[in-house]
């Protein structure tokens, strides 16, 4: 059996050692005589699995006790509704502000409109002309000093890695800059789905952060929520009990049956990351992988990169061939070499290489080798 180099944007590759351990433990977890899928979510075995996953995640991200860590269901898409249902009522007026930087943040804003007064405070849904170059919509990130945040908004939402556009943004405003924006009391909410655990993150700047696991942290089915405890208890009356952060926090993610098997696999990924040396160590690997790939593209006249260099994602790398008639030939040739799922998102076309934590440098080098040879043949 040969495993492919899998460049899928999500669900995406998992570390091989994690899959092997899960396979070994499939019929009998740790001498319990049961698969993790067969256990009571309130029994001692799963209690240990779930609590260890939370503890390991806290260690990885340096999450203090002021935050609750929640394992929820519904994906980041459901979270787009669950966030306003929990947080828009933090302040009178039920206002939420959004920075639009791509398809995912736009979806978040659209969903939130059902629950209150939503304002778009900055957007990259237009071209950017800068230093004689033009950047396409969603290929750049709006500068923080231009965000027109309402001082009385409950929260300000950003997406820190736009998976489809390949735009990454880490310049999250701290308290001082939020005050400079006139938004000193507005809580920052971050959808970090597609670069979660790829690098360390300044949690001291956020009220909450969420991530669907299937991009970089585990299998589909579990959404990870990190939310400051003092923000709990303000859910709108229409919020389903199972989605009220206060309930989920109180029961340590077992208010109702959680996505137990997904939590177990995510927990194995957390342990794998700790063994690698934590987020600083994996960040160095991710830097090197993306540096090599972008360096290759920058030296090529054949491939085109759409994203403004300042905002290039380390995780999702969209690129275009010079002619769309080559797309099918490129993908077939890639597949023959064991390079899978390089097709770009249907809304933008072209190609996209997602190089999450589980993609080793070796896989990126195999991609670069193929890119080189394809350019030699078709350039
Ligand atoms: C994938 C993704 C989502 C949606 O996740 P689902 O699990 O499909 O709901 C939302 N935001 C970002 C940034 C994503 O990458």
Automatic annotation (TrEMBL):
Q: Which residues cross the membrane?
A: none
InterPro entries according to UniProt:
Aminotrans_V_dom (IPR000192), Aminotrans_V_PyrdxlP_BS (IPR020578), Pser_aminoTfrase (IPR022278), PyrdxlP-dep_Trfase (IPR015424), PyrdxlP-dep_Trfase_major (IPR015421), PyrdxlP-dep_Trfase_small (IPR015422)
Look up keyword Transferase and say if it applies.
yes
EC number(s) per entry: 2.6.1.52
- What biological processes does GO assign it? L-serine biosynthetic process; pyridoxine biosynthetic process
**Per UniProt, where does L-glutamate bind?**
42
Pathway where this protein functions: Amino-acid biosynthesis; L-serine biosynthesis; L-serine from 3-phospho-D-glycerate: step 2/3; Cofactor biosynthesis; pyridoxine 5'-phosphate biosynthesis; pyridoxine 5'-phosphate from D-erythrose 4-phosphate: step 3/5
Q: What class of enzyme is it?
A: transferase
What Gene Ontology molecular-function terms does this entry list?
O-phospho-L-serine:2-oxoglutarate aminotransferase activity; pyridoxal phosphate binding
Q: Pfam families, per this entry?
A: Aminotran_5
> What compartments host this protein?
Cytoplasm
Cofactor: how bound? Binds 1 pyridoxal phosphate per subunit.
Q: Which cofactors are named for this entry? A: pyridoxal 5'-phosphate
Instruction: Report the principal subcellular site.
Output: cytoplasm
Note the PANTHER family from the entry: PHOSPHOSERINE AMINOTRANSFERASE (PTHR43247:SF1)
Oligomer status and interactors: Homodimer.
Tell me the protein's name: Phosphoserine aminotransferase
Which species is this record about? Answer: Orrella marina
């Amino acid at each position: 059996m040969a495993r492919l180099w899998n460049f899928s944007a999500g669900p995406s590759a998992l570390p091989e050692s994690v899959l092997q351990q899960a396979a070994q433990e499939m019929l009998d977890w740790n001498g319990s005589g049961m698969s993790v899928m067969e256990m009571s979510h309130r029994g001692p075995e799963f209690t240990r699995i779930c609590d260890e996953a939370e503890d390991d995640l806290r260690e990885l991200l340096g999450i203090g006790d002021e935050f609750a860590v929640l394992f929820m269901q519904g994906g980041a898409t459901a979270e787009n509704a669950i966030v306003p249902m929990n947080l828009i009522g933090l302040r009178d007026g039920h206002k939420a502000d959004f920075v639009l930087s791509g398809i995912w943040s736009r979806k978040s804003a659209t969903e939130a409109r059902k629950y209150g007064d939503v304002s778009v405070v900055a957007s990259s849904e237009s071209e950017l002309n800068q230093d004689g170059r033009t950047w396409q919509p969603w290929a750049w990130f709006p500068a923080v000093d231009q965000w027109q945040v309402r001082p009385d908004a409950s929260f300000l939402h950003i997406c820190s890695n736009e998976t489809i556009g390949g735009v990454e943004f880490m310049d999250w405003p701290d308290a001082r800059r939020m005050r400079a924006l006139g938004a000193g009391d507005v809580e920052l909410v971050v959808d970090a789905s597609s670069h979660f655990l790829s690098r360390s993150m300044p949690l001291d700047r956020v009220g909450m952060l969420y991530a669907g696991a299937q991009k970089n942290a585990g299998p589909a089915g579990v959404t990870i929520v990190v939310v400051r405890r003092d923000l709990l208890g303000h859910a709108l009356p229409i919020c389903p009990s199972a989605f009220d952060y206060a309930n989920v926090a109180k029961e340590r993610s077992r208010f109702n049956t959680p996505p137990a098997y997904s939590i177990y696999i995510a927990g194995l990924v957390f342990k794998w990351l700790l063994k690698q040396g934590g987020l600083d160590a994996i960040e160095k690997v991710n830097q090197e992988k993306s540096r090599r790939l972008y360096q290759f593209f920058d030296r090529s006249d054949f491939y085109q990169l759409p994203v403004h260099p300042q905002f290039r994602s380390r995780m999702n790398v969209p690129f275009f061939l010079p002619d769309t008639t080559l797309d099918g030939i490129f993908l077939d040739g890639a597949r023959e070499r064991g390079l899978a799922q390089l097709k770009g998102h249907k809304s933008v076309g072209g190609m996209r290489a997602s190089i999450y934590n589980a993609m080793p440098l070796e896989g990126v080098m195999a991609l670069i080798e193929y890119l080189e040879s394809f350019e030699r043949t078709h350039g």
